[in-house]
Structures are given as C-alpha cells and as structure tokens.
Design a protein that fits this description.
Elements: E1 2-4, E2 9-11, E3 23-26, E4 32-37, E5 40-45, E6 50-56, H1 59-65, E7 68-73, E8 79-84, E9 88-96, E10 102-104, E11 127-128, E12 130-134, E13 138-139, E14 144-149, E15 153-158, E16 162-167, E17 176-180, E18 186-187, E19 206-212, E20 217-222, E21 227-232, E22 242-246, E23 253-259, E24 264-269, E25 274-279, E26 286-292, E27 309-314, E28 320-325, E29 328-334, E30 339-342, H2 346-349, E31 362-367, E32 373-378, H3 380-401, H4 404-415, E33 427-435, E34 450-452, E35 456-459, H5 467-472, H6 501-506, E36 511-514, H7 517-523, E37 528-531, E38 537-541, E39 547-550, E40 555-557, H8 562-566, E41 568-577, E42 580-587, E43 592-599, E44 610-613, E45 618-624, E46 627-632, E47 636-645, E48 652-662, E49 673-679, E50 700-705, E51 708-713, E52 740-743, E53 748-750, H9 760-763, E54 766-769, E55 775-781, E56 795-801, E57 807-811, E58 816-825, H10 837-840, E59 843-852, H11 854-863, H12 867-876, H13 883-899, H14 910-917, H15 923-932, H16 939-946, H17 949-958, H18 962-975, H19 978-995, H20 998-1015, H21 1048-1055, ...
C-alpha cells in the first residue's frame, strides 16, 4: 500500500530566527503549506520544497493578539485564517505576484529543446512569488480550540462552549453566528433524538472537530473526552437545525480525523489506541468499525507505553492513516486496520549495538501532494534540549582544547545568536512509494505489482538479469539529505548504501523505471499509473497529459505537441486494452469529458487517438476483455465495447455504448465508490453448467462502495425488459438485478478474465483484501464430473484467511499472493557529539514478498465438510512446485492449534486433514517432515491421528522411499525402545545397501552405533576438536602397513578403524570402547553379508562402489574369503557379467590386416554389430548403473577444496587431541561415480597397503594406455589393433582398481577374469607365475585351468574377438597345463624385481616410484606398488598413536605419498 523509502530529508528555513515552527497546514491541493511559529506565518511550496513568503508579526501586535496557534486555508487557497492565543482570528489574503513574478525559475542551457509554447507551461515548474496581507482581526473573546473550513464559512470552536460560524468574506456582524453547545441535543442515535436522554453539556466545549463531506456532519471530541458526531439537518448551520449523536463507553478521546472516501471517523484515545467509527445508515448511531492499535505480539516492549494519541492524518487518497503519540513515533495503518509500518520497533528504535534510541516526538504533520511525502515538524522542546546538549558539549570540548584567552573570545562569540545547528528549523520530509491500486484500482486484474514513487515506477516483472543496470542508472541519491551541517559526511563508497536502491532491492528483482524528467517537471505530481497484462508497458498521468513506456524499447513516449498535453487532464484513470492506453480525461478546449484510446506504437498525438464524447464527469474506469466500464459523477455506470478497426492506415479502435445502469438509488455520494469492476463471476441463480462459454462473458458488476462490496449480476429470469433505447445492436445486453452486498471492510478486489478448465476454482474465484481481517475468497463450488449437472446447484462460499503480508496482487493459477514489505538498513557510522538524521533513522527499502494461501483455503473447506471440493482444488494444484509445502503447512497449523489447546476440542480437524492427505502420494513424507519440524511433545497427538510410525516406516520401505523411511527412523528412535529402532534400522540398512544409497548407508552405520551407545545409557560424548586429517577415510592406510600373511584375527582388529570414516565421536572410557566393539562387529556382519551377496551374484562394479563409498576393507575381507565365496565357478558367466556391468564391448575381429588397426571399426558378424551398438550408446559414459547413487554428492569437491585451509586452522588444536575423530561425515573419498569423466580415481579406502593421493579434489587415475609401455613392439601392435574395442575410460579405471584389489588379496581366479576383459597379457602371465607357488591350493590352479579352457571353448563358438588375445597368451596357458602342482611356503610367494617394474609401470605411466629408502615397510623388494602424485593441498599429518614420531617427520617430507608392500 504505502512504503517508506530512503532517509527523511530535512528542510532548512533560510530565515534566521529564534522561533521554531510547530504547526503545518496544507492547502486544498497540497501544493502550498502554511507553517506557523510563535509570531511568524510562512508559506512553503511543495516542489521544489522552498519557502516562498514569511509574515512576521510586530512585537506590539504580538502582545495584543498573543502567539499564533492554528491555521486554516480557504478552499480556493486565496485566504488563510490564523488563530491566536488570546482568542483572535487573523485573516490573511494570499496574493499572487502577477504573470511574470516567480520566486524560482528553471534555467536551461542555450540550445535546449525545451521551448515554452503555452502560457501555462512556465507556472508548472516555477515556485510562484506570493505575498500576504493581513485583514481586520476578529476577536472571539475566548481561547480557540479548533478551526474548520467549509465552502464559504469558517467554523471556530472556543473554550467557552460556543461554535462560531464566520463568513470568509463578509466579516461584519452580519457574517457571524454563534451557537452554544448546550443547545445542541445529543443522543445515542437519531431515532431517539427528540425524546431520549441527552448529554449534560454544561461547561463542556469542543476540543477538536473535523468536517466530513460524505457524511455531511462534524466529528467532534469534547473536552470531557466523549466522542460525538453533529449533523446539520438542513443546508444552513443554525442552532435549531443541529443534531448530535455520541459514542457510548468512551471518555478518553484526544483527537479526530475523518475519512471522506470510506465515511469513517478515526478518534485518538488517551489509551494509545485509535477507534474507527462509522455511522449506521438505518439508526444514525455511531458504531465501532475497528481499532488501530499496536499488538503485544509484535511490539511487546512499547504497545502499552505509547501515551495518548497526538495526531491522526489520512493520506490524500484516504487509503492509509498515519498516527503519532505523545511519546513519539509514527505508525501507518491501512484504512481497515492492516498495520504497515511502525517506527517504535526494530531498527527504528534500536542502534546496531542494541542501545535504544529516543523516538522522534512530533508536534505537527501533514501529507504532501498525492501522498508521496509526509511533512513532519518535530517537537520544539526536544529540539531545544538536543541543541543545548550540543552547545554544552561544544563548550566543554572548547574548554578542554583551548587556552584561557581563546576561551574568553569564545564566550564573547557565544553572545551572538548561535549559528544554524543541524537541528534548526527542522521540517522533515519522509518519502513514500505507494501501490498503483490506491488511486487506480483498475490495475487489480493484472498479476503484477506496480508501485510508484514521485519520480519512478517499481514493477515486479521484466528481465531479472537486466534489473541491476536499470536501477543503477538512477540510485536514490536525491533521498540523501543535502544537509549543510558540517557533521554530515557522504556515505562510505564501500558501504552498500552508496549504491542506492540497486543493491538493496536488486536481489529481489524490482524493475525500476525512472519517469521521464521532461514530463515530470511540468506535470508533477504523478496521479495515475497503469501496467498492461503482459507487464511490458506502463502509462502514467500527472497534472496534465500522459506518457507511456515500453520495456521492449526502454523508451518513453511523450506528446509531441505540448499544447495537446496541457489541454487534457486525466480524471477517471488509465488502463491498457491490448496495445491501447484507455484514458478517461477532460478536454479543456472543448470543455467536455472524453474517452480516448492511444495506440502504443503510434506517436502520442490526438490525430492518432480514438475519441468518444462522454456526457458526465468520469470518476473511475476499468477494462474487462473487450469492454470498458465507466463510473460517472451522476452515479451511473456505462458499459462500452471496444473493437480494433482494421480499415484505417493507423491502428485505431471503435468504441460503442452498450448499456447504462443508474445507481443513484444505492449510492449516497459518488466520491464513496472506491472501485468498479466487470467480472465473469456469477451467483448460482439460473445458471446451467451446459453453457461454459458464458464463463467468458461480463456477468456482473462489482462496486466497492466505501468498503462495502456490492454485486449486480445480470437478470436472466423471465422476458428481457428494455431499459432504454440504445443504439441498434443485434442482441440487446441483459439488464442487471438489484445489488447484493457480498462483504464489508473491503480494501481491494482481484478477479481475472482468463479461464482454465483445470483450475476453475482459483480462476473463477473473487479475492478480497479486508485490512486487519486478512483476505477473503469467494470460491465457486463445482459438482464432480460424473454427476449430472442438475443434481448439484453451483454455489459459492466466502472463506476468510489470514496472511502475513499486505496483498498487492494475486497470482490466480499459482495460488500465490504478491506483496511488498519495508526493510531497514542501519547506518550508525556517524557516532559524534550529535546524531545526524542518517543515524536517527535507518535507511528504508522496499522488498518484494509473496505468500502461499492454498492451505488456508483447503483447511476452511475441510472445516465446513466440503472435503470433495477441497480434494478437487488440491488435485488441480498438485503440480505446483510448493504443493508438498502447502500440505505440510496445513498439517502443522492444525496440529499446533489442536495439540496446544487448553480446552478439549469437541470436533478435532487433524484426523480429517490426515485422511485428506492420504489421497496424495506425498502423504508419508508430509507427515514425517511435519513431525520433524514440530516439538516432541506434540508427536503423540499427531501419530494418534495419522497412524503408527512403525506402519508408516514399513509403508516407506514398500514404496522404496528410503530417505523418508530414514526420517521415520529418527521418530521411532524417540518414541520406541532401542531394540525396536535397531530392528527397523537394520531393515533400512539392508535395503539401502541393496539399492546402493551410500549416503544413507553411512548415516545408518552412524545411527546403529549411536543406538548401541544409547543402550548402555552413556550418551556419545561430543569431541572437543577435530583431528585435521580425519576428515575422510584415507587416514586408514596412511599410517599402517599390514602384511598379507597376518591372521584373519589381526585383520579384524585393524578393521576397528572403520569408525573413523563415519566420524562417530568416541569416548575415552574403556566401557564405551567395548560397546563400540560389539556394535562394530554387528555392523561388520551386515557389511560382510552384503559383500558376500554381491560377489555371489558377480556384481563386481557394485562391490567396488560399496567398498569405496563405505570404506569397506575389501582386501582384508577377500583374504579371508579367498577360498570360500571369492572363487569363480563359471568363468564364462563371470566374463559376460563383467561386460554387461561395466558397459564393456565384446571384442570384434577387424576387417583387413592385423597391421592396420585404424580400419577395425567395421565388423562382419551380426553379434559384433550388436555389441558395437551397445558400445556407442550415449549412456556409455555417463549412465550410472542401477546400484549407483542417483547423483554425485556435491559436497565432495567443496570439502576437498577447503581441506587444506581447515587443516592449517586445526593444527594447533590437534596435537593435544590427535586421537579424537572428526564429528563430521563426508561423502565418498573414492568418487568412482561422479559425473566427471576425466579424473577417475583408484585406491581403496582400507587400512591396507595402497599408495594413493588426492589431486584437484579427486583421486588420480592411471592412464589407460600405460600398460602397453612394457610390451614388445609386436605385442604393442597386436593390442593397439583392439583400441576400438575398449570400454569407457571410467570402466577401465574401475576394472584396474578391482584388479589391484584382487591381486593384493590373492584371489587369482578373479585376476584372470579381469585380465581377460582388459586383454592384458601381463596380468595373465603374472597370475600363472603365481600359480606355481606351493601356497596356492591345488583347486585354485585347477579352477583357473578349467576356467581358461571354458573361455577358449566359448570364444571359439560365440565370441571370436577373444581368439587373438587367447592366441597371444597361448604359451602361458601351455605352461599352466604342463606345470606340476608343487606346494611352496608363503614366504616364497614374492614377485621378482622384474614384476615389480612391470606393475609399477602398469600403475602409472611415467610417474616416479617412491624411493626404497622411503618405504616404511621391511627391506623386502617393493612389491605391487602404485606410486603417488603430490596432493595439491599438502596434508600435514598429526602424530598418531600408531606411528612413531621419527616416521612422522619422514611422512611430512613425503607430503602424502603412501607406499604398499606385499611381504
């Protein structure tokens, strides 16, 4: 509605004076302001805000009359009446200075295009020179309490209980009447007026009075605090023609302000609240409409400490009221009580260090033209006090700083009147921007928010990327007070404030459009603004003419002919129809009202306008589809049709009158009509659902009559009666029925002319904003599709609901309300001897807000047992992105209300809501999200309504929604005994393992451990600090080297390190360790079972992911399972499975000779064609298998990037607590499945013997071609022939890694299978040489031999591509067949130095191996080793308990090189 913006501006009085202003009164148009001080009357101009003339009373006259107190303008601005302390009325004539007398004129540079064509053009932008002449004073012989101007009369209330009626001109005895208050009969209502009880008014006078035009009476506050309303029974005011009513039960009234548009009287009270009364039209009594008061909820500190209400000011358009209290502060309310701004709280009341500021106390205030400014005069005593403080501070400083001589001089200087201090003559101007709805309500059928300040427009649409440049070009510099005081420093360029509105509002994407300065300076203030439906075109109208702007071209269009602009003024508002601006205006030349349409693309000129003459003044205008509706000053409504004319060369439109409807019977005063709208909204009478085309027709007229929403719908009953002769149209429009009142206290109405079969509820509804009562929706109710139409009459229902923002637009389909809100930015940079304005007031900005309302409506429907309608409405909105949030909100609000209610609820709504939500697939997650966001105490109530959490958990598992199931687990943990949660956790853990949800698995491991420690009644202690290197799993194998010959038991103890991965906080107590050991064993059993399951099903890729993601010690486990589950029963099946699992193409035999490997793209057999197709599929590189996590965990990289920094920070702390583990979990250290293809990693997250390193936040990988380097030339050619038959790089990385793992674990059969798929002869050769070892069981040798024979047989028949490779390794196979199976001790199972060279080069092409002397293992030759690369971050290692200190130094030099030995 209205929003504060920027800082207030201070206006300095150029005249030096000891007196200070204390009263301000605007003229009727608010272009001039009369400002009073004790003996001075000054007149200020509004734009520019300058002092024009000042009248200073002589000392003699001042002694006779007394000090000035109040002032009042004559309605035509030609006279001012001033009331003085000794009971005199001084009348001043305001004289213009003639044609060429201007106080201030604009000066243009030479050659400026601005030529003053019309005589009136100059006055518009110059401050006129005025003079004041005093006429004869009138002595009323009693102190004056109130002044009120009527057309030709001036009403003066005096403290002796009289009401004087003075004539502005004839000031003789004939022009004056006095009415005694005691002669006016007062009663509670007009019906009992003559005979009923009357107030005893002896000794009572009128303290404050204001005239209300639309009620035709005076709202008065009597000296005893009673509130009253005095009505003249005839046109002239005489004693016997006045009748009063008073409000019962109020005796503390202080002031009054009337709202003419809404017929409201706002009375301020000593209690600090404002009572808003209306007059009951039937009885004439005063009825309380609503109160404006601060609530303890939002203002707990101040709501009852404000003191009495001092002033109330309605804005010029009567849509908001500004209130101030004796203790200070400003507060803004909308007409029906929606609270907008208050300066008694938040940044207005507190500095950034939390100290309280003194609220500004106000002696007088007034709104400026069109409500863009609030002129405020601060309290005199307060300013004086502050100045004295400053003066004292100054003197003290000078005394401290200067010597005695200097001090004497200073004292002499002090005798002179003090120079202008920063608080002198302070008139403050607060700046506001307001919604276009306040003056041009036809913008309510658009789905945009349009705000306008005095020189710019704010809109919510436009290209968000360009918002910054638009607003940067005109920051809010004009709002900075241009203070001449030396204390005012320009803001720091680095602060966000100096960048103006662009930074403060840019992130919420206002599109700010500066109004064209040429138009603005001659037609200020802007009175109307409108935007088209698409949000791309705007139009504004000021005092004269209009201008429009397009976001496409970013240009304004102004009248080319200034005379045309100055000869029209917009009266009834602006609207857009397609590409035309529709204007209701008054033409000064023809002296008549006109309806004009200007096309957007034509020049703005009357030659291109479509003009229609109107018979009466237009007050309001609106557009509905191809119709224009006008409300006129004679209280009639006219409907016009518009159609585009295609015959003329310029685009133009044809306007025809369709219908006139007289409303004079129902409307007491035309100014009371706030808005008029045509809608397609209908009541149920006479409507059949068989005619959907009627939904698009103009069915009804909505009138907002002083807050009462009145509807006139078409009369479809009986024969059509002709109202009056209209131009011959084929089909006469239907007449309208008498009006029906739909709602009270309505501020705005929203409706749309669009239709959508899927969202009929929302699009055919009527939306109302009702001030403090929130919003209301008049919702249509439809039958279900399968019902017959006549079995259910279409009805409507009015549903109220509260929202937290002030609504400015409704997005119908999106179920959103758009609004705006004031935000503040503190700026206490200037802490000096005195606080400048910038420190007293925060910088105000306006931010866009929005709110969902759907849950309110669904709930209201369910309360009224309209569940079927609620279901239809919810299903139509189920595709909205925030629909799950809507459901959650609904459950949450109902749960909070019912579960915390003190009395038992007879008919609880929660079971109904729960049943309603079960209709939607997101039922389970809605309930659990709601429960997690609610306190534990309410859970029993919630689950009593929605069902047992165990059942819901099982439902999640059935639906395979594991994340939601995990949330239920937390609830079960709190509501059930540990055994139950362990049982459910185990279920979920196994399912998560099966589905490859690794994140969830890690959480589940942590959860199971937590349950274990909880069973022992020892809560897990919180670690005091993080171990720098424990932020991931690779400290497992950083400081340990376990040889393969160790027994399985010792490997199990090594497995104890698994807990580091999951960062479970571990306690120092031995008891805790025992519990953890048992827990770890329990978890290990499940992990082993899963690994066994994967290996049995030949799912190697899943096994690799499982090991890498969960830090499972694959090598240690495979060592134990070497002769059990880690056997290969069927080599051919295993080979096929690997091809499928790793997307690895079967090899094909190339066309052409072996020596031309580039031609091998073609193949002959059908089989190989099919395989190539599978290879070329797009999903080859980036498809994650079904077991892979659905996406790469994004935190992986961010964590690794930040690790180096974190390590440094924690170095100092870690030395003391190196045995504590990191309390954070981290995503997989082995990112085998991120969506990068280049950087795939190897290394297993185990305690065992691998060398790995981190590079660029990922694990490095061997180059795919490096294995060919150690081969002979002939072999190289042979292998390169098959390059085209390789699988994706990623798969190769994974297979190499698995080969490495199986080789270390001694699972030779698997090594053979992987060697076959990689077609790597070295691997086969190495394995066969290992088979000679006596340690290898005979069945393994037999299995390898049989397996290779089976593969050879299969290759001969089904996959000829393998034959060349099998031929290549034929000698080794032969050796295997011939070899005798001798038994040798395990110590002899050591590779030769040749094989170490071989594997090393195979591991990483040309990378250097670690030096033998660096290895921490024994002096045995370096076995299977993968050399490392330098990590980018360089991880310093803490001395850890299992690593001797001298080794630590060595490791520090190595910078993260880990070695592995096979002893």
């Amino acid at each position: 509605m209205y929003f504060l913006t920027g800082w207030p501006r201070r206006l300095l009085c150029p005249l030096r004076s000891e007196e200070e202003p204390f009263y301000i009164q605007p003229s009727s148009q608010r272009f001039y302001f009369a400002v009073l001080s004790e003996t001075q009357l000054s007149i200020w101009f509004s734009r520019p805000s300058v002092l024009i003339v000042s009248y200073i009373e002589s000392a003699k006259a001042a002694a006779q009359f007394g000090f000035y107190q109040k002032a009042e303008w004559k309605p035509d601005d030609s006279m001012i009446a001033v009331a003085t302390a000794k009971g005199y009325i001084l009348l001043f004539d305001v004289l213009g200075g003639g044609d060429d007398k201007y106080l201030y004129e604009p000066v243009y540079p030479k050659g400026s295009p601005r030529v003053k064509v019309t005589p009136g053009y100059k006055e518009e932008q110059c401050a006129p020179a005025l003079s004041l002449e005093m006429k004869k004073p009138v002595d009323l012989e009693a102190p004056i309490t109130s002044l009120q101007s009527l057309q030709e009369d001036l009403l003066v209330c005096t403290a002796d209980g009289y009401l004087h009626v003075l004539h502005w001109d004839g000031l003789g005895s004939n022009g004056r009447k006095a009415i005694c208050l005691t002669t006016i009969p007062f009663s509670l209502d007009l019906q009992s007026a003559r005979g009923g009880p009357s107030l005893d008014l002896e000794g009572v006078y009128i303290r404050c009075m204001e005239y209300c035009v639309t009620l035709d009476g005076f709202a008065v506050v009597l000296s005893d605090g009673r509130l009253g309303f005095i009505t003249p029974l005839s046109n002239i005011i005489t004693t016997d023609q006045l009748q009063g009513v008073w409000a019962a039960d109020v005796t503390d009234g202080t002031c009054v302000a009337v709202n003419n548009k809404y017929r409201l009287m706002a009375f301020g009270c000593a209690s600090g609240s404002v009572l808003v009364y209306m007059i009951d039209t039937t009885t004439g009594s005063m009825q309380l409409s609503h109160k404006l008061e601060l609530t303890p909820k939002h203002y707990p500190d101040i709501y009852n400490k404000t003191g009495p209400v001092k002033l109330i000011c309605w804005s010029p358009d009567y849509s908001v009221a500004m209130v101030t209290w004796e203790c200070g502060g400003l507060s803004l309310w909308s007409v029906f009580g929606a609270h907008l701004i208050c300066t008694l709280g938040e940044d207005f009341a507190y500095r950034s260090d939390g100290t309280k500021k003194d609220p500004i106390k106000i002696s007088s205030m007034s709104w400026g033209a069109e409500g863009y400014h609030l002129w405020v005069i601060p309290n005199k005593q307060e300013r004086r006090r502050k100045e004295e403080q400053q003066q004292q501070q100054k003197e003290e400083e000078e005394e401290r700083d200067d010597d005695d001589d200097k001090k004497e001089e200073e004292e002499e200087v002090e005798m002179v009147p003090p120079p202008q201090s920063s608080l002198q003559a302070g008139i403050l101007q607060f700046h506001f921007i307001k919604s276009a709805l306040t003056v041009n309500p036809c913008t309510s059928n658009q789905e945009q928010v349009l705000l306008h300040g005095e020189d710019r427009l704010y809109l919510t649409c436009g290209d968000p990327t360009q918002v910054h440049n638009t607003s940067d070009t005109h920051p809010h510099t004009h709002l900075h007070p241009c203070d001449s005081s030396p204390l005012h420093h320009p803001p720091d360029p680095d602060s966000s404030l100096s960048q103006g509105l662009s930074t403060l509002l840019g992130h919420k994407h206002w599109h700010v459009v500066q109004i064209h300065s040429t138009y603005l300076e001659s037609n200020w203030p802007i009175r109307f603004a409108a935007i088209n439906t698409a949000g791309q075109c705007m139009a504004v109208a000021g005092r004269r003419g209009l201008a429009h702007y397009s976001l496409f071209t970013r240009k304004w269009k102004l009248f080319g002919n200034i005379t045309q602009e100055q000869n029209m003024t917009v009266t009834g508002g602006l609207a857009w129809w397609k590409d035309f601006v529709v204007v209701a205006c008054y033409n000064f030349i023809d002296q008549q009202e006109q309806l004009r349409l200007y096309h957007r693309s034509s020049n703005l000129d009357n030659a291109f306008a479509s003009v229609t003459k109107l018979h009466s003044d237009t007050l309001l205008l609106n557009v509905f589809r191809d119709m224009v509706i006008l409300f006129r000053a004679d209280c009639s409504i006219c409907l016009y049709s518009i159609e585009r004319r295609n015959d003329s060369p310029n685009p133009s439109a044809n306007v025809e009158l369709l219908q006139e409807v007289s409303m004079s019977r129902y409307i007491p005063h035309p100014a009371l009509v706030v808005s008029v709208t045509l809608t397609s909204v209908r009541t149920e009478t006479g409507i059949t659902l068989k005619a959907p085309q009627q939904a698009c027709m103009a069915e009804s007229i909505m009138l907002n009559l002083a807050g009462q929403l009145i509807m006139l719908h078409r009369d479809r009953s009986g024969p059509q009666v002709r109202e009056k002769e209209t131009p011959a149209i084929n089909k006469k429009p239907l007449p309208f029925c008498p009006p029906v009142v739909l709602a009270q206290c309505v501020e705005n109405v929203w409706t749309t002319c669009r239709s959508n079969r899927k969202k009929r509820h929302l699009l055919e509804a009527l939306w109302l904003s009702c001030g403090e009562a929130g919003m209301k929706v008049w919702l249509p109710l439809f039958p279900r599709d399968h019902r017959k139409p006549h079995s259910f009459l279409s009805r409507r229902i009015m549903l109220p609901f509260h929202i937290n923002i002030y609504p400015l637009a409704v997005l119908f389909e999106d179920a959103l309300v758009l609004g705006a809100t004031n935000e503040t930015v503190l700026y206490d940079g200037l802490q000096g001897s005195s606080e400048p304005l910038e420190a007293l007031f925060p910088f105000c900005t306006v931010e866009r807000t929005s709110q969902i309302y759907l849950h309110h409506i669904l709930r209201q429907l369910l309360v009224r047992n309209l569940g079927e309608q609620a279901l239809m409405l919810a299903q139509s909105c189920a595709s909205l992105p925030y629909f799950p949030h809507v459901m959650e909100l609904m459950v949450h609000v109902v749960l909070e209300e019912e579960a915390t209610s003190r009395e038992p609820i007879p008919d609880p709504l929660l079971p109904t809501v729960a049943k309603f939500i079960t209709e939607f697939p997101l039922f389970l997650q809605t309930i659990v999200h709601c429960a997690r966001k609610t306190e534990y105490a309410l859970w029993n109530y919630l689950f009593a309504a929605v069902g047992n959490p165990k059942d819901l958990f099982e439902g999640c598992l059935m639906a395979r929604d594991l994340d939601t199931a995990a949330s239920y687990l937390i609830i079960l943990q709190n509501m059930e005994v540990p055994a139950v949660s362990r049982q459910h956790a185990t279920l979920l853990f196994n399912t998560a393992l099966e589905q490859g949800k690794w994140d969830l698995c890690r959480h589940m491991i942590r959860f199971l451990k937590a349950i274990g420690s909880g069973e022992m009644d020892t809560p897990p202690p919180t670690p005091t600090t993080q171990e720098p290197s424990s932020t991931s799993g690779f400290e497992f194998f950083r400081n340990r080297s376990i040889s393969l010959s160790q027994s399985a038991d010792s490997i199990t103890t090594g497995k104890f390190n698994l807990q580091k991965t999951f960062s479970m906080p571990t306690g120092p107590s031995a008891k805790g360790r025992d519990v953890e050991c048992a827990e770890n064993m329990y978890i290990d059993m499940m992990l082993w079972r899963h690994a066994r399951h994967l290996l049995e099903q030949v799912r190697l890729r899943d096994l690799g992911c499982f090991s890498a993601q969960l830090g499972f010690e694959l090598i240690g486990w495979l060592c134990r399972e070497r002769n059990r589950v880690a056997r290969v029963d069927d080599f051919v099946l295993a080979l096929k499975r690997l091809h499928k699992d790793f997307l690895w193409p079967f090899p094909v035999i190339p066309v052409g000779s072996l020596s031309s490997p580039l031609k091998n793209g073609r193949c002959r057999t059908v089989l190989s064609t099919r395989l190539l197709k599978s290879q070329s599929a797009d999903s080859l590189l980036n498809s994650d298998m079904d077991t892979a996590p659905p996406q790469a965990p994004p935190s992986n990289h961010t964590w690794l990037d930040g690790l180096g920094q974190r390590t440094k920070d924690m170095d100092t702390a870690s030395s003391a607590h190196s045995n504590q583990h990191s309390p954070q979990t981290h995503d997989a250290f082995l990112s085998l499945l991120t969506n990068k293809v280049e950087e795939y990693s190897i290394g297993s997250a185990t305690d065992l013997t691998e060398t790995s390193s981190v590079v660029d936040g990922d694990w490095t990988m061997v180059d795919e071609n490096s294995s060919t380097l150690s081969l002979s030339q002939a072999e190289l050619e042979h292998i390169s022939m098959e390059l085209a038959n390789k699988g994706p790089h990623k798969s190769q990385v994974q297979l190499r890694y698995l080969l490495h793992v199986f080789m270390e674990a001694g699972c030779l059969e698997w090594c053979v299978v992987i060697g076959l798929i990689l077609r790597d002869a070295n691997v086969i050769r190495q394995v066969i040489s290992f088979l000679d070892s006596p340690e290898v069981p005979a069945e393994t040798v037999q299995s390898v031999r049989n397996g290779l024979l089976a593969v050879d047989t299969w290759a001969s028949t089904d996959c000829l591509g393998y034959k060349p490779f099998l031929n290549l390794i034929q000698p080794h196979l032969q050796q295997l067949m011939d070899s005798a199976a001798e038994q040798v001790q395990p110590e002899a199972f050591q590779p030769t130095s040749q094989s170490s060279k071989l594997v090393g080069s195979e591991g990483l092409g040309g990378a250097a191996l670690p030096r033998p002397e660096d290895s921490r293992g024994a002096a045995a030759p370096l076995g299977l080793a993968l050399p490392s690369l330098e990590p980018t971050g360089g991880f310093p290692r803490p001395p850890s308990e299992d690593c001797p200190p001298e080794q630590t130094e060595e490791q520090g030099e190595e910078e993260g090189a880990y070695d592995c030995t096979l002893s």
